[in-house]
Structures are given as structure tokens and as C-alpha cells.
Amino acid sequence: MSVVYESQRYIDEYLLFHFGRPEQILKWPGGPREALDFPVRTVSHFSASFVDRSLDVGCAVGRSAFELSRHSREVVGIDFSQAFIESAKRISREKCLKVRCLEEGACYREDEVELPKGVNVDGVIFEVGDAMNLREDLGMFDRVHAANLVCRLPEPQRFLERLDRLVRPGGELVLATPCTWLEEFTKQENWPPGQTLKWLQNHLSSQFELKDVVDEPFLIRESSRKFQWTVSMVTRWKRNEPTVGGEVS
Ligand SMILES: C[S@@+](CC[C@H](N)C(=O)[O-])C[C@H]1O[C@@H](n2cnc3c(N)ncnc32)[C@H](O)[C@@H]1O
After folding, report:
1. 3-class secondary-structure state, position 7
2. What is the domain count for the chain?
3. 249 in a domain, yes or no?
4. What's the domain range around 219?
5. pTM of the model
6. For residue 84, how far is its CA from the centre of ligand 1 (angstroms)?
7. Which residue, among 182, 198, 171, 174, has the nearest Cα to 230 in the 3D structure?
8. Domain CATH code at residue 218
9. Probe ligand 1: pick from 145, 149, 179, 219, max atoms within 8 Å of CB?
10. Each residue of 179-215: pLDDT tens digit?
11. For a Cys staple, 51 with which of 44, 92, 142, 161, CB 3.0–4.6 Å?
12. Do the domain assignments include residue 91?
């Protein structure tokens, strides 16, 4: 499994990506502002109601898990990176964290990011875990969110196969992916054989109904003059309800 997400560079980039204010991320007036707040926008695709339990797999430094807590009694955020989970727990406790923003070359600017107001930190639990081998006693969730995760897994189909035991019947799944398949993370034999959407449908449609497919851009600041602008395909699924005989199809 890749260790890139344990590095200080990625911790700082993701803290800024998840919690940075627009002016901290993008000081250029002509830049793509609509690509900011991605971890908030993906969560906004769930239907508007209060639920009991939500899960964010591949939660990184935690912004979407905190956003889920606005409409959920309990949220579990899971990521394989110990460093990301440690940062998520720290911002939950301390509300404000220092970040080192790369300006250029070896020049950095010290800055701070803050936990947004109105989130229910007491309802959010963060833990290290492997999306391909999640602990069996996690239970079922009303909402499962996994953003930009599947194309970073060595064997993504193992995560997809677990989803029908994670999302309760009638529950919702938001799966976002920029479809950026790379050998560095996933051997080509485990890539979708064709289009990612078709592959997701092949894996999920016996247990889930595809409700929406929406494109959401996101922006990750690498230095003051260089950014990653990428478009994620956000899919929303509803887990099938039991049929008359009580079976879930
Ligand atoms: C591209 S980042 C996306 C993070 C976050 N969901 C977002 O949208 O900003 C991929 C995340 O998946 C995590 N990850 C990679 N492999 C994983 C695995 N096997 N199990 C759980 N998380 C994993 C990484 O540590 C990283 O936080």
C-alpha cells in the first residue's frame, strides 16, 4: 500500500484542502473557486434528513466526516494513513492546527486552519483501517461516503464487495472517483476493464439503485503557483429495501 499519505507534505496539503479558507488556498482572482470545498460538496449529495449512523471511508484528515456529523448521531471516519487519522483527531480536539504551506522551492508560509462551526465533534470517531479489510464488527450505516478512494486501492473490488454489509437496506452510498487509475496504487489487472461507471454498476447494481451521477471539481494546492484541478465523478446509490418475502435482493 502506498505510503505517500503518511508524509508531512500530504498532511499539510490535505489540511489546507479540507479546512482552508478560500483565500488561504487560492489567492489568484481568476482561479477556479467553484472547485473549493469539495469535501463539503460530496456530503451535500446525501438526502436531507437526520440519520443514526454514517461512515466515511478514506476520510483523510476528516472534513467530510465532520460534515456528516451535522446530520448524523454518530460518524465513523476510517483511513489507512495513521498520520491523517492523527491530524483528524488533533483538529477535533484542538479546533485549530498549524499548517506549513509551500510557497516555492524551500520557502514555506506558516498558517492555521480551523474546524468549521456547528459540527458535532463528540459524535465523530476516527480510526485507522483498511477499506479492503474493514473490521467485521463495524455494523451497518445509514450513510456511507467514500470520496476519491477506489482508484487509490490495490484491490478496489474488495471494498465494493463489502458495501452491501455496510449500508443498511434503504440507506445511501456516495461514491466519488476521479477515475485516475495509476499503477502506483492499483495494478492494471485490477483497473476497470472499461469505463469506471459501468464497472461500478456491474459490481453494485444487484444490491443498490443508482440515483445520480454528478461531476464535482476539486482543487489541491501544491504551492502558491501550482494546483491540481481534477473532476470527480460523484455517484449516489440507494441500497435496495427488503422485498415482500423479507429478502434484500
Ligand atoms: C485521494 S485521498 C481522498 C481523501 C478524501 N476522501 C478526500 O476526498 O479528500 C485517498 C485517501 O484514501 C486513503 N486510503 C488509501 N488506501 C486506503 C485503504 N486501503 N483503506 C483506507 N483508506 C485508504 C488515503 O490515506 C487517503 O486519505
Report:
1. coil
2. 1
3. no
4. 4-239
5. 0.96
6. 9
7. 182
8. 3.40.50.150
9. 149
10. 999 999 999 999 999 999 999 999 999 999 999 999 9
11. 142
12. yes
